[in-house]
Amino acid sequence: MVDVRVGVLGPMVATVDGQPVDLGGTRQRAVLAVLLLARQRLVPVERIIDLVWADTKAPALTTLYGYVKQLRRALDPGRNAGPQGELLARQGPGYVLRLAADNVDAELFAGRVALGVRALRQGDPAEALHLLDEALARWRGEPYAEFAGYAFVQPEVTRLTGLRLDAVEERYAALLALGEHAAVVGDLAGHAAEYPFRERGHELYALALYRAGRQREALDALRAARAVFADELGLDPGPALRHLESAVLRQDPELAGPSGTAAVTGPAPTLPERTRNLPFEVNRLLDRPGERAAVDRMLGQHRLVTLTGPGGVGKTTLALQVARSRPDTDGPWLVELAGLGAPELLVETVGAALGLPAVATLEQLATVLGARELLLLLDNCEHLVAPVGTAVATLLARCGGLRVLATSREPLRVAGEAVFEVPVLSGEQAAELFDQRAAAVAPDWAPGPGDREKIRTICAELDRLPLAIELAAAHCQVLSVEQIAGGLDDRFALLADGPTGVPDRHRSLVDAVDWSYHLLDAAQQRVFRWLSVFGGGFDLAAAGAVVGGPALAPVAALVRKSLVMVEPGTDPRRFRLLETLRQYGRSRLDPAELAAAQAAHRDWVLRYAEEAERQVRGPESGVVLAGLAQRQAEIRLAFASALAAGDGRYALRLGGALAMYWYRTGQIVEGTGWLQAASAAAPDAEPGVRARALIGLGGLAYLAGDPAAAGRSMRDAVDAADEAGDTVTGALALAYRALFETVAGVTAVPDAIADAGSAVALARQVGEPAIEAEALSALGMLRRIAGQVDRARVDLAESVQVARRCGHGFVEASSSWLAMKVALDLTDPAGALAAGVSVLDLLERDSDVTSWLVIVHTAAAALAGLGRPEDGAALLAAVERHGSRYGFVPDLMDPVDSPRQVATVREALTGEQWATARQQGWQLSRDEVNALLRVHAPWPGGPGGRTVD
Question: What topology is assigned to 179-256 in CATH?
Fold first, then answer.
């Protein structure tokens, strides 16, 4: 069998039995890249073509077949007979590359990095250094270097590039663990400067400085990092940097490296034999070193630490791991309280666990423990919060050597208590736990092709709760991973058969949640049930609207009891339910209560959306659009529940309110889908409601490149608004009907100009400057179509001025875009670029998508006119990349000017220049595009120095 190896860490190379082979041209190599990235999974022929020829017309199938033939000839010269023996095999509708991970340098690299990190975590820095050096030695340059213009490789390039930085930083960590702080401090300074947003680099640099005896400089480095995160990202540093800064200030002994360890003469001291009652591990427990270290530090600083979190998050497991590592002379001792139903027996229960059956009062217990140094682990206190809190407060006051580690679904609320909210597992930890438990119940189990991604999805669906993951993985003895994933829609039925010998509350997922639910009073239970109709996060105002009353007290109680999560860093504060808890809450709603809760939820969503509609054409539009984006899950739920309930009129009202949001954020497919479904469900809705929805449909059809459909919608909107007597909506619909029907060739330009002028007059008559600005924008565009360029400039300048006065940023940007076109008509590329750059800040403020895309597209032609066609080609590629995320293509929306703009750029470049510039442009972020435009701003001082005229 031949030994085939492929390298992608740099330009793609391949060897067969150690000899390099020719992989052909870029497209042929791209086919190989698609198959490599599939990792021995089938890739359909259509998918290969879509990915490799995304930037051009799809070739004949024979072209792909020829490439595959050439790749086979290069990589598998001795092809084994039969498709199952082939390296590059045809299988069903596509191809599969059966190349083991060890034969691809990127996979070998990733494997070595994982082993190196594991060795470092297990206390073997020398081995870690060796493995990480091996991994980094495989790096020859940018991964998949010749495929910069291909979108399909970008996620893998991002993954590998990030992994390389992880490897570099872990290598520094290994060197620090080996006492090489003096040797690496300079390199770490450079690394932190080059990658200012990577916390790990700042952490290692500060640690190296501290170990080199430069405490002041270490603090300066940490504070500089804090400033970078605050100024550039608007964020606080993470817990690792905050802890390190605190530890440096305290000169914490834990920061000392190998060279800081005191020399020991004679044999090492041994701890005396301790008495304890902690259970031995039955299963190999998933280690959570970060959480374990954090809790251990807290116990060093506080005498009472309570671990909180929802049922099944792993509080008991973590507490036991911490307790087993404690050096207390007389302990630790575990007291299990889950089965204790009588609070008056609390002292006797603690005494019995400590081997003190004669203790009957809290005073006696305090007397016995007064001279001891021990850790008391009180497990599952949530149903006895008040009596446990009283007892703990008394014992801590009387027993100076006592420390208490408690687990509870809510804090004990005792003076001096430190609370550690146990987080759910990370994605990597969750997948590792799934593998462990699956292998335990089925020793021959191994994930099949494609199972890795499904396992990650299962873990995410289960909120990465350890209990839920363990229960799901146990089904691997009988079910496939695909079947387990499919069963999560009814997770409480699927995850209902846990092992014997565990507490009842851990026998099934529903038991775990039941335990918490039944600790609530009736009012709290109702609030919890009704909050389950939310699809995502919610604030107190939303919660109050849905549950029908003040929400602060009940939501705060549910947060304390770990049934509602707080979204940190939000202001106003937002909350959410884990998906498992949300589904449980929904299951507790009877049909009538569910209908009532959903109706209340819909009412709140509609009120929010209609208030947003009133502000979206004003100076607060950026805040309004951001708020709507944050509530997307709720909006979708409201549409779905309204249509399921047969309330098409509601869906039409909601769709009409969201029309401008969908338009500005480029959500063509979603907005059109909801509006069409609502229209079909409410054919007899009153005309005023239909008019607003029809305007939304028309705008989205125009964005999608169907001006004829857009014009028909606007014509129907004019008629409906007239029937309703709604002059404001009628003026808006009239202006856009004139524009869209002209673009579609349905209406003569003079008639359209007259209609747009009438729309301007109507808007002025009713005192609606925002609608006036939109109508003026349409009028200016129509005059340009008619060849009345000078009058178009006047109308557009007036539109910009009116829009600025009323804060209607969308129209200011839209009319500035049209002014760019007029400037290009007049052979004034500098003026065109100036008009576009003048509204960039506004577009960023509002997170506008569609206006930004068309302005950048038009600016490409302006740059070509200024002698910068390479930059123009880069901008066109950036527009294509960013627009593809939304299904928005300027060529479709603007079929006359857009192709001409592309031709202006293309004709100024050779084929090679065009391709190179497009490759560069495909990588540009939105911020980088804006920076490129501002660099070429044709007036001193940048965009603030000129206005559209």
Answer: 1.25.40
